Amino acid sequence: MDPPTAKPPVGARVLRAALHSAVGLCLVVALVHVAVVFLAVAPSNALSRRYSQQINAWVYPLFEQNWRLFAPNPDSFNRQILARTAHSDSDGSMRVSPWLDLTAVDRAAVTHHVFPSHTAQNLLRRAWSSYVDTHGADDTARSERAAMMQTYLSNIAADRVTDHDKNRRFGFIQLRVVTRPVAAPDATGGNRPSTPVENRLLPWWKVPPHGK
């Protein structure tokens, strides 16, 4: 007669059940994520239109998808994004800072780096592209996603300014975007100077207080 099999300790059974639950939860989240991203990139259909708000809330801005890997569409313009800040003094007057070239700061973080940061290369540029897509030319947010992209862009700019000058105090930020066509090479191999095709000044945005 075989000896009775000893039951595993209670702690081991609880740990095993927790592990199974965690694996099951990860599997469910992964399946939901794949399904939502599929609906986001698939042609418009009854399901994606009905749940468009939930799909956009999940996908943007962290899981945005595009097909540029397979059909590259390089930019034909160079965009220079500048920012300045303001804060209220004790007497109620506004103190405005000089313009800071955020694009130049990002470019300096990438130049001569063997493994440049993806955020320095694309974060600010993609945030601006998404802002333009949702706002058009009048800087008016007419949807929840547009308002979210405005907050996203202002937060990125405020964080970049703070990283550049940790002692700067401000509660408002303003962006200016100068757009120039990609310059054609001249006879000497250099680039011809290009004239800006757009010099866009955005409104002042209130941001959480930065600095001391």
Automatic annotation (TrEMBL):
The chain crosses the membrane at residues 20-42. Keywords: Membrane, Transmembrane, Transmembrane helix. Pfam families: DUF5819. InterPro entries: DUF5819. This is DUF5819 family protein.
